[in-house]
């Protein structure tokens, strides 16, 4: 058969399999036949890969064609589920599958009652689903579903007057007890306490039994002369960006609870989508590292000799993060190829230069992307930044201000995509990107290859004769997957204990 398209004759390539054989392959969603033939559905006019997760029509309603060009010439359109166009362009099909799956979960988390139902909707096995979500979200499928259900519940609790039980059931939890247990574990407060955040200037967090704030304070106060964080006998004080306004919080730890209080500026305009208390709560969880799956890490240690040896003399470490991902990225760029002391000095100088003053005592807030984007490179070189580092920092800030880089979107998506997008920026390499994924985005299975402290800690842990290379570091960290972020912090901490 010959068809003519745009003035050229194209002869369809014959297929080597029978229709019955290919039909069985698409019923089984066989990925190995992707690129070998296409399924063209007569009733809908779309063409799909053999592995497409969409429901299959009857054989009589299908045409099988060998190439994408043939399908287009016959008037068929691309399937939005399996995206054969991406496959034939050489783009990552699994990455697209993850992104679309995440969008479907967020649109209606109650649609997926179990991991198996999620796998079925994607047209893949539960084993493949686990691999996909581990790679991109650094979570198990069950944990991802719980996270998205709780996010949906958080929004409903603030923006609706529904009963708490009805909200829990509506987002996919099987019972009131299950909803309360999972919500409290993720948010460190009950659903009813969360609902009060829309009209409050304080909240109380229930801390895990093994929580110790010392590690968090040491991280946030690595700059001993910090202008933007302060710890005294009663509380930790820091200014946070809330809806574009600087808000000073006071965080007090008392045994198994943490109390956070704040006062909004007089000119503060509330944000209808995100009340101040909700955003402050989110950032405080980050500052304390309460998103860390310590129990999962320690449970895995029972079956993993490397993890067991790493934590045998170590207290639980909740990995603290920066208040927002931009602050972490700034710290990572500043810290490139210099020691911690000089990095802290440069950070302090940057905050003094561009961080708005809060109050009467010179207390400042870490500058946002807007403040840094407004700087000229010479202003940074004048405070001992290198010329290249000045350009990198201002360039990243400008990308954020222009909308070319959305750190919040990257944080809520795929770790693979986030690392790639960051590394596309001038001056951002794997170490800077992965440090940002750890401290700014909270991904749980990152290895900051290139980190001298990690190299030294691995040499000590494995009793190596010399420091490992980047490739060797990747191999040495594999036994700690899927908790390599926690393992990295434990290894860093082992160096401090030795010194």
Give short descriptive properties of this protein.
499 residues, alpha+beta, DNA Methylphosphotriester Repair Domain, Arc Repressor Mutant, subunit A, TATA-Binding Protein, 5-stranded antiparallel sheet, 48% helix, globular, metal-binding, DNA_glycosylase, DNA-3-methyladenine glycosylase activity, DNA-binding, transcription regulation
Q: What's the arrangement of secondary structure elements?
A:
Blueprint: E1 2-5, E2 8-11, H1 19-27, E3 38-41, E4 46-48, E5 62-65, H2 68-73, E6 77-78, H3 84-88, H4 93-107, H5 115-122, H6 126-137, H7 141-159, H8 164-170, H9 176-187, H10 191-195, E7 202-206, H11 214-220, E8 229-231, E9 236-242, E10 245-254, E11 257-262, H12 276-288, H13 294-300, H14 305-311, H15 325-334, H16 340-354, H17 369-373, H18 377-381, H19 387-402, H20 407-411, H21 415-423, H22 430-439, H23 452-462, H24 470-477, H25 484-498
Parallel strand pairs: 4-6
Antiparallel strand pairs: 1-2, 3-4, 3-5, 7-11, 8-9, 9-10, 10-11
């Amino acid at each position: 058969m010959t068809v003519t398209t745009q003035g050229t004759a194209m002869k369809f390539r014959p297929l080597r399999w029978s229709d019955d054989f290919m039909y069985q392959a698409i019923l089984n969603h066989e990925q190995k036949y992707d690129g070998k033939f296409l399924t063209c559905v007569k009733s809908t006019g779309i063409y799909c890969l053999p592995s497409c997760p969409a429901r299959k029509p009857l054989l009589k309603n299908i045409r099988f064609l060998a190439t994408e060009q043939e399908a287009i010439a016959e008037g068929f359109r691309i399937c939005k589920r399996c995206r054969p166009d991406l496959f034939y362009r050489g783009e990552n099909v699994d990455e697209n599958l993850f992104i679309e799956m995440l969008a479907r979960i967020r649109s209606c988390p109650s649609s997926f009652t179990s991991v198996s139902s999620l796998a079925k909707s994607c047209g893949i096995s539960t084993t493949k689903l686990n691999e996909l979500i581990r790679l991109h979200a650094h979570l198990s499928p069950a944990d991802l579903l719980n996270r998205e259900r709780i996010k949906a519940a958080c929004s409903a609790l603030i923006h609706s007057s529904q009963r708490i039980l009805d909200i829990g059931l509506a987002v996919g939890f099987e019972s009131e007890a299950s909803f309360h247990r999972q919500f409290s574990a993720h948010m460190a407060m009950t659903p009813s306490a969360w609902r009060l955040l829309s009209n409050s200037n304080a909240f109380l967090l229930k801390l895990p039994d093994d929580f110790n704030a010392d590690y968090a304070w040491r991280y946030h106060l690595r700059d001993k002369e910090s202008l933007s964080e302060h710890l005294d006998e009663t509380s930790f004080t820091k200014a946070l960006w809330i809806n574009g306004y600087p808000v000073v919080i006071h965080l007090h730890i008392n045994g198994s609870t943490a109390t956070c209080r704040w006062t909004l500026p007089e000119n503060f305009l509330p944000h209808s989508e995100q009340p101040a208390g909700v955003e402050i709560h989110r950032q405080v969880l980050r500052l304390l590292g309460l998103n860390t799956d310590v129990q999962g890490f320690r449970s895995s240690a029972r079956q993993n000799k490397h993890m067991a040896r790493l934590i045998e003399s170590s207290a639980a470490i909740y990995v603290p993060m920066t208040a927002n991902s931009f602050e972490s990225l700034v710290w990572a760029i500043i810290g490139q190829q210099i020691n911690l002391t000089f990095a802290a000095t440069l950070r302090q100088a940057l905050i003094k230069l561009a961080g708005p003053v809060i109050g009467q005592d010179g207390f400042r807030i870490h500058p946002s992307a807007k403040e840094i984007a407004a700087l000229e490179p010479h202003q940074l070189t004048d405070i001992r930044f290198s010329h290249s580092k000045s350009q990198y920092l201002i360039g990243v800030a400008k990308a954020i201000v222009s909308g070319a880089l959305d750190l919040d979107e990257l944080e809520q998506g795929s770790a693979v995509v986030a690392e790639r997008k960051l590394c596309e920026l001038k001056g951002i390499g794997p170490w800077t990107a992965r440090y940002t994924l750890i401290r700014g985005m909270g991904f749980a299975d990152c290895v900051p290859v290139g980190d001298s402290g990690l190299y030294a800690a691995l040499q000590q842990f494995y009793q190596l004769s010399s420091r490992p290379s980047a490739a060797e570091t990747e191999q040495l960290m594999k036994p700690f997957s899927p908790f390599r972020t926690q393992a990295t912090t434990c290894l860093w901490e082992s160096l401090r204990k030795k010194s």
